[in-house]
Amino acid sequence: MARDQLADLWAYHADAAIGDDAPIYRAIAHAVSRDPEVLDIARRTHPDAHHPNHLFAAVRFLLLGGVEDELAEAYLAGDAANAVELFGRFVRRHADDIVEVLQERRTQTNEVGRVGVIAPALRHVAADHPEGIGLLDVGASGGLNLLVDRIGCDYGDFRTIADPPLEVSTALEAPLEPFEPSDLRIAWRGGL
Questions:
Q1: Which segments in the chain show pLDDT lower than 70?
Q2: Whole-prediction pTM value?
Q3: Please, what is the average pLDDT of the chain?
Q4: Which residue among 7, 58, 134, 189 is least packed, with the fewest CB closer than 10 Å?
Q5: Contact 26, 87 (CB under 8 A)
Q6: Which residues of 138-154 are buried (b: 16+ CB within 10 A; e: fewer)?
């Protein structure tokens, strides 16, 4: 993607995709849209990684992984003005590490394929809670993962629903005890 196109994407993301609850990210996205050096670092990756969420996630990944920087303190303090300057500086200082993360990892904020992993985990939790469990999906996007008990899962050896309206296939590396959606016992669900 050309630099000007990427700049437009970042500006659009700041204006249309980031809510009022994330002023730091909005300010950073506006600043990145005007920062040719940061945009060029992002352009060193595969086009699939050009979306702003990927760069935000790569920076967080490095910070949470132990890279010490004042940016982490700015995030914690909610200091948008300082975070803008520190974000650009962090990306420039750690460009190679960020590019490596962006080439190897992706964010998936609305991936319904997670149901194949979530469902067996919830089944184990529900086994200890016959009264039912609550399911809270933070960052629910379209809310599909809140319907984990209504989406069919094909695990190869068995299916959770015979003829589902939506089905995901999940490859298993170890045997999995068959279960049915009712085994999840979801009594309450909510998405943020």
A1: 106-110, 140-142
A2: 0.61
A3: 91
A4: 134
A5: no
A6: eebeeebbbbbbbbbbb
